[in-house]
From TrEMBL:
It is a single-pass membrane protein. The keyword tRNA-binding does not apply. This is Myoferlin-like. PANTHER family: FER-1-LIKE (PTHR12546), FER-1-LIKE PROTEIN 5 (PTHR12546:SF34). One of its GO terms (cellular component) is plasma membrane. Pfam families: C2, FerA, FerB, FerI.
Length: 1245
């Protein structure tokens, strides 16, 4: 409904959908200002239909006199049964408007925010008033909260540009409030966060009303009720929350089919009967409601099969994508004669039946971290956390603490490109116990169906690789597929008879699944392998889709397992694992999760993604197990190492006046955790129930420090800064700290710096001049007391400068003849946890929080050593004791609080009782024991990567071509190929050898689930700090445990992706060979060494033959400008298989666009197998001044088979593809030929 006043202002009600008797109950208000109503005033009320073929279909209008309202202000004027008329003042036949009221106020009220007109503001100082009203709070997380409600009013005299960029203390931008309707946000919810620790999660919600008013703005009506009480729909995003905590739910709406066609008389009851009774009307639009927000697509007029192709985006906070609780609900569909939208109470009998599904059981979750690789250059210590719902979340104070986090660890360089965590034979473990409903039978059913689906898909993929319909392999592959599918379909699904809490949906799903499997099994038995291949494949695909449709289970109430990567208690990356995929089941090996008790690879996702290169934060190789506590004996059978549980504390000391002690150690306690923040004395540790001490406190062997930040580096630049100072108008002299590092920490003189063991200096000290310094390498600054050094440095010397410094550098190399990487690794692995070491083994650092090291340096001020004490279970048990460590070790926080509590049933008597603090609050920082899985020794493997070529890489926007290089990462090692310049189809023809790879665990498990090989391709740029990322592919190596039965791998196509889009493919093969260290690897020597690389050996490398490529290059046409310059002197370069030829240069492209020589012959060795044939690349370069030759255009001929012809077969007619040339180019060619004829005639004369 729309209402018009003579003032020229229009007001509209909301749209009431699907209602023949609409009720609005809305108030529309106008500001009259100086134009008051009189006896001649009237209003026009129009009734319109929304979303029809004719936009805003007019049902009619009515004029309402406003004279009565003008004569009697503040009195309601009720108008009933107003008849609607058309433009000819004839009745439309509609029943009209039943009732509405009018009222004029003498003192005009402030309009609703939706009707306030925003005015333009000049950027000069003005008066503004800011109002903040705290209305309500919900879900406050702290205990003993005593909230105080306050109203904030403050006046400002500022420019709009400056004021609107400021924040209220609750972090809402003022400009956002002022730009809102009515310059106000009324009854909006804000989520509360700790500003110091945003990753601790939200602390509750607060409802506020915000107003930012300028001079002359009317304040809104703050007493009016809120439009809706829905928290989600009125929830605003805090400006202090980083972008990493936000997410966007994107719903892609493509099309709809068979939308019901409704007759006009059922849609538009107010209009007269339609002239054509057969006419139909449907104008579909899709509406989506999510989190209190409603979005709808555009209206498609008169189409029963609408096509929208729109994306609906719902912004939400990051907690909305993780666990935020559970809701128990039931969905029913009932047939009623007249459905009515209503809300009723659930009968008591139904609620009692629901209690039958509520009993919970104790579950155990254990994760063993085998490796963490492909890390970036991270200086902070890294920690991983595992959570299941709220269980295991170290930032959640509502649950008991668990051993859900790994020990802090620093990343180590792998010698090429990435970093890894040096866990080696001591793998960290985490355990969590939780309580959930019994969903084992549902998990068993869906896991069984997924196993059948995966095995059928694997056989189908093998069937699709057969190209020839009459290939004998068709019968072999089909018989294997048929046999396995029939066997799988005959396996019984877990029965529901013995289950207690079974729903109606469980019973119906079980019947449907059994029926589908029976039908597929019978159809598979009847199908013969002689059926044409083009009919077999669609039939199997249909079976696959039917199994996938019934394998979905919606009643698994256990949330996903989350693995978080933490840096300084900040969550930076995560990965999800479905709980049913790691769930154990007693119903057989097919009923348990496919990842249960198996080592597998997980790729973490970053909290924020970049535009071009979205790096993998980390690659984890883990073994996970989850199940009922009664079944945890199965976990002990699949655990490959020895479990060790330790309590840990660090003894800290500081050097004061040359003496080590605890003086001036604050704020760091004498004994603390690894961060140095939490006090953990030895005598305050508490034994968990069922555990006892197994040894005395002992110093831990400093194994992790043997692999310092220089591990795997072959070249290091040693630096030291020389500092000088002076008084004004005086000469320079050595400063009070003559030598220091870049941060100003004192360092020894450069002459006193010794070369570390295993290294050798290759040059003398020299001053660095390749930066912003003067000719002598000095940079100058002014130090403001009490600072010792300036905060900024300048190149030019001034008379007021008081300090200067210069950087001395000296390069050193690792002495490979004295200590190799293998020897260093062997020494590292020989230090086991059971070896006793001296208690005077300390680790040192110049500042607390820096990376500690074993070798003491002159500038070290802090030192610490790690004390550990082993725990053991009191008595053997059928249940794994590691699952009983929740809320175990910790320190009591202060004195126990005392509260007065009235006991139930005693109204007249109060007594003071001492309340036990919750377990999570009685433990300081939730310090829990550390769990490790210790292996006896590794198995040695060798990985061979046969990198042949990459195809169809995405070109650079700037260069138009690329210089690709591939970085190959496998566990804790990585290598790279050589750089191929100027191509998008690089052919490396190189073998990368990864020797002495340490893999822990059973080799058979490695063969079943091998570690992945990650290949990342970059565009190499020697002049840039970083290379442009071109794509990534994930490959699985072929594992060989016995060289006597080794099969030669075959090059395969691996898709390359970038930003989830395909970007070419990689032709490569990977094999992982077990090296038993018995000399058996001598049977398989390394490939041939040629031009600095290992080539691909025969049998894997494609067979080549000499071929001739004949090119007819006539000329160039339609060349566009390049870098705003006309292409004037182009030439063509043809490249194929490492060979290239170049045509003659066209001297004046605008006048004569043809080459002087048109036929070219290129001899090249090409593979016999067409799948390996390289493409032909065509590049056009422009010869410009000063030798500049940019690539101004290029094309690729990918398939060479269509151009192949055998010159010895003269009788055969070769079907060459037609030349792609249009009529315009033919006319240009004919004109060029005529011009050549005229030039030839002129020369002959």
């Amino acid at each position: 409904m729309k209402v018009y006043l003579p003032l020229g202002i229009e007001r509209s009600t909301r749209v009431v959908q699907k209602d023949q008797n609409p009720i609005w109950n809305e108030t529309l208000m106008w500001y009259l200002d100086q134009e008051l109503l009189d006896n001649s005033s009237f209003a026009i009320v129009k009734l319109l239909e929304w979303g029809t073929k004719i936009q805003n279909r007019d049902f009619g209008s009515v004029e309402v006199a406003l004279g009565g309202a003008a004569e009697k202000p503040n009195v309601m004027m009720i108008k009933k049964n107003q008849s609607l008329r058309n433009n000819s003042l004839q009745p439309t036949g509609a029943s009209g408007i039943e009732e509405f009221t009018l009222k004029e106020n003498e003192a005009p009220q402030v309009p609703a925010p939706t009707s306030t007109t925003t005015k333009e503001l000049s950027n000069k100082k003005q008066l503004f008033q800011v109002r903040v009203i705290i209305i309500e709070c919900r879900q406050l997380q702290e205990n003993n909260v005593k909230p105080v409600v306050k109203t904030f009013v403050q006046n400002f005299n500022e420019t709009p540009l400056h004021l609107f960029d400021q924040f209220i203390t609750i972090q809402i931008e003022m400009g956002l409030v002022y730009d809102s309707p009515g310059h106000a946000m009324i009854s909006k919810w804000l989520s509360l966060y700790d500003p110091v620790n945003l990753n601790a999660g939200f602390k509750g919600y607060v409802k506020v009303t915000l107003c930012v008013l300028g001079a002359g703005d009317r304040a809104p009506d703050l007493d009016r009720p809120a439009e809706t009480g829905d928290l989600e729909s009125n929830l605003l995003q805090l400006a202090s929350v980083p972008a990493a905590r936000t997410a966007s739910l994107q719903l892609y709406i493509y099309r709809a089919e068979d939308v019901p066609q409704i007759q006009d008389d059922t849609v538009t009851p107010f209009t007269a009967p339609p002239v054509d009774p057969l006419s139909i009307s449907v104008d579909p639009s899709l509406e989506v409601n999510f989190g209190g927000r409603v979005l709808r697509t555009k209206v498609i007029l008169g189409d029963t099969n609408p096509v929208w192709n729109q994306v609906l985006c719902f912004p939400m906070q990051e907690e909305g994508t993780t666990y935020r609780g559970r809701v128990l609900m039931e969905l029913r569909t009932l047939r009623e004669p007249i459905p009515v939208q209503k809300i009723e109470d659930i009968p008591g009998e139904t609620v009692k039946k629901m209690q039958y599904f509520l009993p919970q059981f104790r579950y155990g979750l254990c994760v063993v971290f085998y490796s963490a690789t492909m890390l970036a250059d991270i200086t902070e210590p890294i920690q991983f956390e595992v959570s299941l719902g709220n269980y295991g979340n170290k930032f959640d104070e509502t649950c008991k603490p668990f051993a859900s986090t790994t020990q802090y660890c620093h990343a180590v360089y792998d010698g090429n490109f990435y970093y890894y965590l040096p866990w080696y034979d001591t793998k960290p473990m985490v355990t969590i116990t939780s309580f959930w409903e019994d969903v084992s039978y549902r998990v068993a059913c869906t896991n069984t169906l997924q196993f059948i689906h995966e095995r059928l898909k694997k056989n189908l993929d093998t069937l699709k690789t057969i190209l020839q319909p009459h290939d004998p392999l068709v019968a072999v592959v089909w018989k294997k597929l048929q046999k396995e599918l029939v066997e799988d379909c005959k396996k019984p699904l877990p029965a529901l008879d013995i289950q207690k809490a079974v729903t109606v949906l469980d019973k119906q799903l079980w019947k449907l699944r059994v029926r589908v499997l029976q039908q597929i099994g019978k159809a598979a038995e009847k199908t013969n392998w002689k059926t044409p291949l083009q009919k077999l494949i669609p039939k199997v695909e249909g079976w696959l889709n039917r199994i996938a449709s019934v394998a979905v289970e919606t009643q698994i109430s256990i949330p996903d397992v989350m693995i978080w990567m933490l840096l300084d208690d900040q969550r930076v990356a995560y990965v999800r694992v479905k709980s049913q995929s790691i769930m154990f089941s007693k119903d057989g090996p097919y009923a348990k999760g496919r990842l249960c008790g198996k080592t597998h690879t997980l790729f973490l996702k970053g909290m924020q993604s970049k535009m071009n290169y979205d790096p993998i934060p980390a690659v984890l190789r883990v073994r996970m197990w989850m199940g009922r506590m009664a079944d945890c004996a199965d976990f002990m059978r699949c655990c490959e190492g020895r479990i060790a549980v330790y309590a840990e504390t660090y003894e800290n000391q500081k050097k004061t006046h040359g003496i080590w002690g605890v003086m001036d150690l604050m704020p760091h306690p004498n004994f603390s955790d690894v961060t140095g923040q939490v006090s953990l004395p030895k005598d305050t540790f508490q034994l968990p129930t069922g555990w006892q001490w197994d040894s005395e406190w002992a110093v831990e062997p400093q194994r992790r420090l043997l692999l310092d930040k220089e591990t795997n580096y072959s070249e290091v630049i040693q630096e030291v800064y020389e500092n000088q100072s002076r008084q004004p108008s005086r000469r320079w002299k050595p400063a009070r700290v003559p030598y220091s590092n870049a941060s100003g920490v004192p360092a020894p003189r450069k002459e006193d710096i010794l070369c570390p063991p295993g290294w050798v200096f290759v040059e003398e000290w020299k001053v660095e001049l390749n930066r912003a310094v003067d000719d002598a390498g000095w940079e100058y600054g002014v130090a403001i007391p009490p600072a010792e050094f300036p905060h900024s440095w300048n190149t030019a010397e001034k008379t007021y400068h008081t300090h200067r410094r210069r950087r001395w550098l000296r390069k050193r190399f690792r002495n490979l003849g004295r200590e190799t990487q293998q020897n260093q690794m062997a020494a590292f692995l020989q230090l086991h946890l059971d070896i006793k070491v001296k208690e005077d083994v300390w680790e040192y650092a110049p500042l607390y929080g820096w990376r500690f090291h074993l070798q003491r340096q002159p500038d070290d001020v802090f030192r610490r050593r790690c004390w550990r004490r082993k725990l053991a279970p009191v008595a053997p048990s059928l249940v794994a004791p590691i699952f009983y460590l929740e809320g175990s070790l910790g320190v009591e926080v202060g004195d126990r609080q005392k509260k007065k509590k009235t006991e139930a049933g005693r109204k007249d008597e109060k007594e003071e009782v001492e309340l036990e603090p919750p377990a999570s609050q009685g433990l300081l920082k939730k310090n829990t024991p550390l769990l490790y899985c210790v292996f006896k020794g590794p198995m040695y493997f060798q990985l061979r990567c046969y990198m042949y070529q990459a195809r169809d890489l995405l070109r650079s926007i700037v260069k138009g071509t690329a210089d690709p290089v591939a970085h190959v990462s496998f566990l804790h090692l990585s290598h790279c190929t050589h750089v191929i310049s100027g191509t998008l189809h690089p052919c490396w023809d190189e073998t990368l050898l990864f020797e002495d790879i340490l893999i822990y665990g059973d080799p058979q498990g490695t063969a079943q689930d091998p570690p992945i090989v990650a290949v990342e391709i970059f565009d190499y740029d020697s002049g840039a700090r970083s290379n442009d990322f071109m794509g990534r592919c994930i490959c699985i190596p072929m594992v060989c445990l016995d060289l006597n039965v080794r099969s030669i791998p075959r090059l395969q196509k691996h898709p390359i992706t970038r930003n989830e889009e395909e970007n070419g493919y990689l032709m490569a093969a990977f094999e992982l060979l077990l090296d038993r260290k018995d000399g058996s690897m001598g049977k398989l020597p390394p490939p041939t060494w040629k031009v600095g690389v290992y080539t691909i050996p025969k049998g894997i490398r494609p067979i080549l033959r000499l071929m001739a490529v004949e090119i007819l290059a006539w000329g160039l046409r339609d060349m566009k400008n390049y870098n705003l310059m006309v292409v004037n002197n182009p030439s063509l370069i043809i490249e194929c298989g490492g060979e290239s030829i170049q045509t003659t240069t066209i001297r004046n492209f605008q006048e004569y666009p043809n080459f002087s020589i048109n036929v070219y012959l290129m001899k090249v060795y090409l593979p016999v197998d067409e799948d390996y044939s390289p493409p032909i690349e065509l590049k056009v370069i422009d010869h410009r001044d000063f030798g500049y030759k940019p690539v101004v255009g290029q094309a690729t001929v990918r398939s060479l088979s269509q151009y192949y012809c055998n010159p010895l077969e003269e009788s055969k007619v070769h079907n060459l593809p037609p030349r792609e040339i249009d009529q315009l180019q033919i006319m240009v060619l004919e004109e060029s030929e005529r011009k050549e004829d005229r030039q030839a005639q002129h020369l002959s004369h």
